[in-house]
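subagent[fold] <- orchestrator: predict structure for attached chain, return tokens only, no commentary.
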Amino acid sequence: MNSYREIRGTGIYVREGLQSSTFRIDSLAFDCDGVLIDARESYDVTILETTRRLLSECLGFTPSLREEGRDLIHLLRSTGRFNNDWDSTYALVMLTALVRGCGQSTEGELVKKLKLCVAGLSDIKEGIGHEVVDKFLDTRLNKIKNNKIIHRLRRSLGYPGNPPYSKLATLFDELFCGSELFRRVYGERPRYYDGEGYITKDRLLVNQDTLSQLSKVMNNKLSIFTGRPRILAEYTLGPLLDYFSRESSIFVGDMNSIRNKGERLRFSAYRKPSGVAFLYMMERLGASQLLYVGDSAEDLLSVMEAKKRGRNVLFAGLYSCAANVESQINLFEALNADIILPSVNQLPNFISWMIKNEKLPA
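subagent[fold] -> orchestrator:
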């Protein structure tokens, strides 16, 4: 593992060996949630609320999963295999059902057992998201006397699947989008929830001055690579979205509203932690070295996959929105991130130091 040095007073950590002579970025790409947008009170809360509603309806059990739930989401994302929030919801619903099926648990015991289950997902060597969960469940179901409940629950959720066909995905997006925005995205009336969406709890992390400075330095070569659909990014970013190249940006969540199966499969090749997206972005940006700014293990693993495909991509990991800042920094260090920093708004100064070949503040 590489060692890191902190630029005093900034909270920025730089991998030893990253020098101005090798730092020749000419383009930037950004994840959305946790980088440009603070989604802790929107997407994360939607995961927990969808989980509670489904468990209450299907099993008659409603766990609170407050702060402990946020810890579980963090643990899932730290595996690098749960970039999709539907997958995270599916994991929490099914693993909770599994734990309950093994005997009654207090809330504290439930959370402890769920953490053990999440840790156990690492034993499954292949697959991402729901695939990992299903394989894990299949190794455990023979220990449950009435495992028919688990099978019925699986069928009831209709997952994997997209709105309006999957109950899990539909309820999730209705809660997140709200009724009006859900209609705009899917052309369908909501079935389970008709009210204001949690997307209204989104908060901007990036400011206009940051994007203006970066756009000038990079000659307008800014892009977005995110799992959020474009219409939902536009809802929160508003005119700030104009700073990013539309032709080179990838909104993987757009595939969920595509009805054509072949087109959806083509889009799915960009799902994190695939590195294919960087081939697409760099070609359209005309980039020789790209810096990708993300906040999760999936983001960094995507960069690692792009490097295996011969692309010159660096990674900057943000940690200010992490459930546990210390563990997030440790995770990025363990995965050999190039730069680790609190906020996207610190990038202009850092890039200026590196491009001008200035000595980094000690």
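orchestrator: received. Logging for downstream: The radius of gyration is 21 Å. The longest helix spans residues 43-59.
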